Amino acid sequence: xxxxxxxxxxxxxxxxxxxxxxxxxxxxxxxxxxxxxxxxxxxxxxxxxxxxxxxxxxxxxxxxxxxxxxxxxxxxxxxxxxxxxxxxxxxxxxxxxxxxxxxxxxxxxxxxxxxxxxxxxxxxxxxxxxxxxxxxxxxxxxxxxxxxxxxxxxxxxxxxxxxxxxxxxxxxxxxxxxxxxxxxxxxxxxxxxxxxxxxxxxxxxxxxxxxxxxxxxxxxxxxxxxxxxxxxxxxxxxxxxxxxxxxxxxx
Length: 251
What we know:
By secondary structure, the protein is of the alpha/beta class. It is built from ten helices and twelve strands. It has helices at residues 40-47, 70-76, 92-97, 101-104, 110-122, 138-152, 168-185, 196-202, 220-223, 226-233, and strands at residues 2-11, 14-24, 29-33, 55-60, 63-64, 77-80, 156-160, 188-192, 205-210, 213-219, 237-242, 245-250. A six-stranded mixed sheet has the order 6-7-8-3-9-10, sandwiched between helices. It is globular.
């Protein structure tokens, strides 16, 4: 479990995250939703120790993240940020191999190669694994970066807007793949996502944020509610049940 206690992040006098507490269950998909500036990406980055907190605590499986050694934490939790810029010329396979660095320290063995191959298969990158990243479309590059995170083989996978630059077909494939990681491999997936219908269809839990605070955190069905969503987005919603999932229309 990930436990966030009284977490605050300030930039000067501006509070981006305000005294926030939340528990994130293992073996589930938890989505962070909310308008721009709600603090979703900042919260994700603090959970992964990518950026420092102003105050508060984050525990992963009962151990405060300050106490984890870098290499051990990288075997426990992985994160993919929105903006990925690598200034060296890499093939898709070389990029994905970076995910094995906490284990291999740059010397790949047979086990590392198996994880790399599996990630390539998962993301359907077999026909482009030898291509350079600059030769790919934005969506293909996004799939390669997600494959790198998969190759890292951590228990907790944090993804910041993983559907960026993806068309509808590949967005669905990514979300199905994340669902399979949870159900088949027991992974814990935490995503920042703007499409609330994807969040509704594939998530077990949703954390709804606004202005650096939690409006509500609950099961998906409790969050995908017209009154709750109106509080978050200041929009009118109409919700329908389709195959026991709630789908939102908003105008």
